[in-house]
Fold each of these.
Amino acid sequence: MSETPVLRMESVRKTFGGSVVLQDVDLEVAPHTVTALIGASGSGKSTLLRCANLLEEIDDGAIWLDGEEITDPRVDQDAVRRRIGVVFQAYNLFPHMTVLENITLAPRRVHGVPRAEAEARARELLERLGLGGKAGEYPDRLSGGQQQRVAIVRALAVRPRLLLLDEITAALDPELVGEVLTVVRGLKEEGITMVLATHEMGFAREVADQVCFLEGGVVLERGTAEQVFGDPRQERTRRFLRRIVEAGRL
Amino acid sequence: MTVHKTEPGSEKQDAPDDYVPSQRRLDRERHKRARARRATAIGAVSTLVTGAVLYLVVVNAPGWPRTQETFFDWGYAREAFPKVLEGLWLNVRLLLVCGAAVLVLGMLIAVARTLRGPVFFPLRFLAAAYTDFFRGLPLIINLMIVVLGVPALRLQGVTVDPVLLGGTALTLTYSAYVAEVFRAGIESVHPSQRAAARSLGLGNRQALRYVVLPQAVRRQVPPLLNDLVSLQKDTGLVSIGGAVDAVRAADIIVGRSLNYTPYIVAGLVFVALTIPMTRLTDWVTARMDRRRAQGGTT
């Protein structure tokens, strides 16, 4: 890869108390590509994403965003987070704000975008994601799928360099999963760089340029989607995928 | 219009369909109405009986005639009422000023206690020491120290006005309580909300101001109103410094007549003042519970 990767991790290690959650994790995410993190619950996918956004402090190793080391303690963490969008499993919308206020909070308060401009962009994004009529609603009036799409708009509103999606369909009813995944497909077509932790293997296979299989905090296998899903090299990857197939998720 | 996909029952259906209630439903509703009527009747009878028993017990008590004379004298009540009301105006003003001061000071202390980082250690420590001290110190002793002790110092330029000093003492004590209410509210906001704010690039202070505090304050409205009701009646304690509030006004008449009826009048006036406040508290609480039941994720 000649281009500077948007995100690069080297030998990242993270522990919680006595347990090692991430160990020797290397990762490289090229611009305009999608990386899928797969693996059982507790394998470290979410922690990896939280570390990339500095919501968790890593114990060892280093992380670069656009070639700048963001794990340097002298770095302004808020400035780093401004360049990364995150969508959480539980949406984490602000319940006391309307949809529009949720979306325009960061552009207005952090990036100093004038209100009218921020709202215009928010409405445009909402429209594109099929939420045109929902700008004035409070989150608790929306379905799970709608809330998650609003959360995606909120993350996109600041035009991040990188979008982290943390099991964004895990809390949704099966019939609502589709509408959210459609949105992510659209984002890939727009060339937005994404890293997503997911249990939707069919979706990962379809949308990801790179797939990483994590187990016990270690990246056991990495490769293209065809390679990891079609011809896994590791026995444990094969076993994991077999279980997924048996559960009817692939 | 887009199709709403909300939970059933939340949307009103105004489509005129051909629904006719079944006999089963009518029977069920008739039974429910009958049961409600019976419940109301039982409640009324039970209230009457209880009231009658209480009345008879009090009236037939051996000391009742004397008690009635000293506590429930209509003549003294008429004399005391306007003076007590006049004094009450001071209580109301104290409530408004102290209430506002308490909310501001309490919020500052609560925020100080949640600050992170070593720079703020002294601030955190002071705030914690403040709440510990003033929540433990009985209000009446606090009042005596401030209202009687401060003037005794004969400091230049420091007020000796019992109303100002009494208000200060009330503010000191109640700020400690209200700070804890605010702090509980701040801590009850789920960490994922802060994480979401930080992930958007908001700094610690911005996350607190735009995301955490608005939710914390909203949640703490019922307990805050509760403390305000409590403050309202405790404004009566400034009378120990000699300020003529409702209690003191009653006190003056009692001192002259040796009849306690004015105290009863003052007490009832306070109750009358507090009731709208407590009803408001109940109403706000009920409304918030309803919202939460609908919303789920609040």
Note: Chain A touches chain B at residues 53, 55, 78-79, 81-82, 84-86, 88, 90, 92-96, 105-106, 109-111, 132-133, 138-141, 143, 146, 154-155, 158 (CB under 8 Å).
Amino acid sequence: MTTLEQNPAAGTPATTGAGRDHGLAYWAVSDCWNITRRTLTHYQRQPSAIVWQLGFPILSVLLYGYIFGSAMKVPGGGDYREFLMPGMFAMTMAMGFMNTAVAVVTDAGKGVVDRFRSMPMAPSAFASGRGAADLVVAAAELTILAVTALLIGWRAGGGVMAALGAFGLLLLLRFSLIWVGVWLGLLVPTPEAAGGLYAVAFPLTMISSTFVAPSLMPGWLGTVAAWNPISSTATATRELFGNPVAGGGTGVEEHALLMAVVWPVAITLVFLPLAVRRFRRLSR
Amino acid sequence: MSMSKSMPETRSRSASGYAVLAEGVVKRYRVKGGAEKRALDGFDLAVRPGTVHGLLGPNGAGKTTAVRVLATLLRFDGGRAEVSGLDVGREPRRVRSRIGLTGQYAAVDEGLTGRQNLEMFGRLFHLGNRGARLRAGELLDRFDLVEAADRSAKEYSGGMRRRLDLASSMILSPDVLFLDEPTTGLDPRGRGEVWDAVRALVAGGTTVLLTTQYLDEADRLASHITVIDRGRAIADDTPDALKNRVGGDRIEVVAADGGDLAAVAKAVGRVAGGGLVLTDDTTRRVHAQVADRVAALTEVARSLQDDGIAVEDIGLRRPSLDDVFLRLTGHGADAHDLEQHQDAREVAAA
């Protein structure tokens, strides 16, 4: 520490008070980008993290596709693996909120959130940057999953525009769940507790049309599954990809495309304010 | 900006002349059951620029709450607070560009290298890419982290992590640095590293408000100490003046044989002038406050020798801050800390 004697409190001219003349909106975007960049650097430094995140859906694809696949029937006919893939996409997007929650609670526990809050950065950047990074990662996950799916014979027959629309719907679901993740991340006390959310999240994603058509489930369970937001996204993407749909004929299934937009919008309208409120409450 | 830079000694001055000023600050919490708890109950604090000011208090006294209020992390319910001449309640955003905060946990991003940490925080302090890169380089050098700069912060030792944490809170060359228990959990070497860094910062003109559970830490670093208990400042002085307030020197005798403790206590009692004689069986220690230190030492030594009582050690010592604590708060400084964390959790759960 030889140079400590030279007034460490003073910075060089280049490092003091830069850029004060920009407006609040500029900094909201700039700070958001820097938080996004931070999260992406995590993945860049540890690419294996994304592989682990994808391990479960890829394993599920193989298990359900090849082990149970031959025993599975798709109502109305069609190949089970073709039916399964959009479900896996939707489930991966849905489970993504866990990553958001764990990342947020880890930051909060380590005092990183407090540091951000004690800095003159835009208060919205913490959540918006997190969300933007999560969407980039989700897009990467979808790409990897889609390539895996193509390798085992899945085909999207609905045309390029429809396929892009399907991916858009999947990312919309992921977007809406970012706010659930931020809210939960600020609610639970430790990363371990956040990990425990898997026990709740996993059955919730199963009670949907991910693996099995709701019409094949016991009546009440089938109704719950049909109304699950994940089912709407899964069914809508099946339609767009031109895969077997296996609709049960209920209203919510018939209007899957609409519901795949309505659900995420509703979730965002509920959980975005909750997350913001939770963040503000840190000051109380 | 450039003018204030050239005069760092005047940067922290406000109209009041203090770098940090709290007047009657009240912070209320609702606890379960609707009851109200005052974490800060008319808290006063005045920190002179360019000094290290220690904030000491027993468990749950409100130290961490005070720091979080002053660092704009918590809103407060009454009173007035000023940091670097800016009103904390009215201009939190401006306050944030003048302060640094190092909390109870090293707030470093373990997924990044030391350098990436500093560059990220630098960009978020709005230094721009180039500015953040330059500043990161300077701070790595100043906090002796150049060799470890491009290693993952996950691999850092406790002391290195704390230095990186300190460096992150120094990015904007803050007027006031809040250090909330900066050496908790560090080994002696790590503590020494942090102490050196803090002393150097203060030599450079930064004002430091330090909370600590280690009394020797406050004794070594702080030129001024505020003792807080039940959300209120109950004493405010230099470490020496606080010790004087507790009383004069103490004589301390360690008996060679535990069986002699009563006889030793009797000999010490003769010079204690009717004051309390404390005996500790496990350490075979007897101590009491004395008025005339030299006369007391001579007399006790002679009478013990006359009675043929062997002693392992005999001496005079200044009262420690432990004694100050005991006297001022009616309870010791041990079993600290737990409730502070509980406070933080209460906030999160509120």
Note: Chain A touches chain B through 51 residues (CB under 8 Å).
Amino acid sequence: MNHLKAKGIFLLLVTGYSVILQSCGGVPEEMASNESSDKVLAVADVLTLVSEENDITRTLYTKGIVGAGKKQGLKFDEDWQDDEVEAGPLPALFLRGISSDIRKSDVPLGLYLGSDFPINASNKFQGKQAELFAKIKTDQKPQHFYEEDQKLYTSMFADLAVAAPCVNCHNDHKSTTKTDWKLGDVMGATTWQYPSDSLSYKEAIGVINAYRNGTKAIYNAYLEEIAAFKNDSTKPQIGNKWPSKGFYLPTAEVFIDSVRKLASYHSLEKLLLADNKKTTKTKDLASN
Amino acid sequence: MFSKNPLRKRQRIGSIIGITIGIIIYIVLPLKQTEDFLSLGPLNTGHEGLSCNACHTDAKGNLMQQLQSNIAYTFGMRKTKADFGTENVDNKKCLECHDRPNDRHPTHRFLEPRFKEAIANINATECETCHREHNDTRIVLKNAAFCVNCHYDLEVKNDPIDTPHEELIANKQWNTCLQCHDFHGNHIYKVAEKMKDTIPLEKIQEYLKGGVDPFSNKKKHQPLSEEEWLKMKKKYSVK
């Protein structure tokens, strides 16, 4: 009798404990979206979208800041962060700065720049990237693949010589490995990586924001570098004006705002298109 | 009606002793004074004096929630594990104090597919590959000739040093790299142009084991101290 009573109490305790354990709730999972139905955007589409934003940002920086700035006497150097060097980041390093800042965010997006004739040997493509880059050089079409070892969805996009400063700087650089670049050449490729095959709107916006915040961070780092220049006469006036108007540089807000104006319409259209596709797909399924 | 079991007294004494030991452990072990006892080993160079919870920060949720989450994970009811007790110490944690804009070899650089073979030899994507904590040293690698993994085909134009890089590479003198080049690039110093003026290998090896810094005592960026880190954490913590 007593034995049965003890067993009953034990079972009651176990049940009670299980109920408490279940009802108190666990640690929330850190995932932007768990519902597969929310994942309306294919990873290749999102990476294409952000890569197009990157093309706009880099062209604006290369033409509007580096190209026009050089004519006003601004200097740009690969050792721009060295104390004794008073210069700004070259476009490739501007991109690396964006990439570093993205890595500091919680968005698992990877961005890299490489080439078959890089100035810095560590940026030379190898293995699969080198093979795919050979294809990109012939047709300029993006390459999307799944990197098995890293378990990352990867996209490579052609990086074109869009402005005279790209060609001139690379041809004249003391460490260049190729001296006959010309406008329109595929000078390299950007590689983008993301860990899942599809993204929700929230995740896609996270990717775009991470990229834009990266742009802001590296541009601000450049302005901070200027503030530390020893000679005041080498400091351009920072405000609303661009170097094409004189010895000026736009503030980070002005620069980013110009990127936004050029990129946002296209990005929004692409995001909306994914929703349209989803609606059509749902209708098709319903009619079947 | 029922006679008392003679073992009952022993059971009570046993329970009291057990509970007392439990309470003592619960009170004593979290004390600052017992940190050395709990530590896996002496902290690495520069980390002396840090509290355990500077790196081993409390995991999210209470014990019960962590337990529940991990049971749910075991039975496939959630996709990710939850940290139990303290958070995992990873790159992000290191970078909370050591992040700086001028790192010549930041860990994220090596995540790119092109470094796949190099990181199979040395996983440079993780701080702890070289700086594994609780080893009373600066870096844990036995041999600091790791540069070969990426720079094996290095060609230097306008080579500034009297013994050309080409010759050093041909002779596989990869442990000489650090005699001129500081891996993370945070020291302010003038690089020698003659091999005889470079930092002797013994001094480099001593430094890697936690000895005096032979590059320079001037650095471009200083990491946050524990107090500064706490202040930052407080300032930016989500409420």
Note: Helices of chain A lie at 2-23, 43-71, 91-104, 127-139, 164-172, 201-227, 252-287.
Amino acid sequence: MTELLRIQDLHVSFKTDDGMVRAVDGVSLTLNAGETVAIVGESGSGKTVTSLSVMGLHKKGQAQISGSISLSDHGTFKDVVSLNDDAIRDIRGRAVAMIFQDPMSSLHPYYKIGSQLAEAYLVHNPGKKKEAMARAIEMLDLVGIPEPAKRAVEFPHQFSGGMRQRVMIAMALMNSPQILIADEPTTALDVTVQAQILALLSKLKKEFNMGILLITHDLGVVAQVADRVNVMYAGRIVEEGPVDDIFYSPLAPYTLGLLKSVPRVSSKNERLKAIPGQPPSLINLPVGCPFAPRCEYKQHSSESGCNSTKPELIGTSATHRSRCHIPESLRHDLFAKELKELQS
Amino acid sequence: MLKFIGRRAIFAAFTILIVSAVVFGIFSLLPFDPAALTCGQRCTDQIVEANRVRLGFDKPIYEQYWLFLSGIFLGRTYGAGSAAVGALLLWLTVGIGLGIVAAKFKNRWPDTSSSVFVLLATSLPTFVTGLALLIWVSIKWKLIPLSLQGYTSLFDNPFKFIEYFILPWITLAIAYAAIYTRFTRAALLETLGEDYIRTARAKGVGERVVFFKHTLRAVLAPLITLAGLDFAGLIGGAIITETIFNLPGLGRLTLRSVYEFDLSVVLATTILAAVVVILMNLIVDMLYAVLDPRVRIT
């Protein structure tokens, strides 16, 4: 397995009038070629901030970033955190590309689709206008836009939402990047189109042996396409592991809460099991486990650590790790039982 | 695209026709005898009657309207509008230019000093800036000769033309330039936060191109709309500036004609102002279609 991206102990904070916001607090993860790694979490958990850090898209002076983001530029590893502006710009769109949540507003309304795509190529291959246009049409064809040559001279408003997201994907592929970051790529689309886009991403991943970092809050999407999953809460990864482990034997109370809150067709007239309470403010994080105020399983903790220390990301398995003060064996049995009850 | 422009042009022509009919109708209903207004106090009935026939006021109303309509197209063009056009170019250059600088150096000294300009320029009324310019630049410092008469056409002597109009241009442009500085700055900063600007950055596009191509392009369309409407308003509304600088302008002409009950002239300038407003709207619509592909459909 070729490693493409290694994030180590990433911290990102923003200065606001109310104080420092710790949006990302010590995130580490890796991404290999040919695999989809998902970052799951609710709004404000730090998943988008993490992905924007990989692109170096935070504004200078506003965000304070520490740690390292080692990224493969076609074989050579570069640390995005310490690169200067020009070097980051050179990587963007070429070694790592990104597609965004809202395809309706992510394309420039005044430029033709073809020239917006061609620009992505021209930025990194100056002067090659003809090649850029040919490549744009080729990529539109690849992502399943019918009559690509004709559609290339049209404007974004003449495309439907799903088609625009295909265009965004085509744009991301213009320079054959090894890493693709997909930030909520299907959130703004309806369900049938969602499935098409996810299938397309999976197909392209295999075809180009790309590594996809998928940012989402949708567990359905995760189950469909992810190989490995990182669950984020309050700027930290609270559980990481292969997708099956996460869905069938979750170890973090937060992950279990997420799984329980997925609506089920089978349950009749039952209220949705939402996680009680609100995510904590990132300005004044609790001293102990950030999830403790909302945690239903606190009483199972052998020590009174929940409110005094932050748990470490540990696990008996090398691939499946979680943050919780409750002994892992206890959690394993307890959570498995709950999931079984839920499914019956 | 051509179909769109054609349809708008026909619509504009139709609007002008209706406006002229309404204005003409209003004036023909006014309780003044236009023929009586043509001669002084010691007027005899014979002279009034003779003038009535000479000016065509004896004809039925629809025939008068027809004469009036055909007269519009046979009339000759006037030097009016030079002040407005020059001012438009000046305020667009200064306003958009300063707006760009202010947005680019947000919260740094160029932005703060542009705010000072905006505040000063918007709070000074036209008669103050106009008179101040006249007193200091022309009379005290004698930088530009006081030209109470001597309108020269642009084509005869461009230098003289500019010398004649430069102070009126500045006077008219200064307040607008301030508003446009503010508008351009705000629009640029707002657009910089758009998703498609982030997309451009994600492609690896440099900051300069992001600003001057992607961002500025999106701001142009609303700026053009604003400029078209302001220009149309200015054509008839430059009365104060025209009076201060003794320009043979449309606004002053209208005002004087109203005082003198010179109905024909009031009628003419009203129609002209209406035509300019409609034409400017048409031009703005066309430019908008060029600038914003989304309005081109159908």
Note: Chain A touches chain B at residues 55, 57, 85, 89-94, 97-98, 100, 102, 105-112, 119-120, 123-124, 155, 157, 168, 171 (CB under 8 Å).
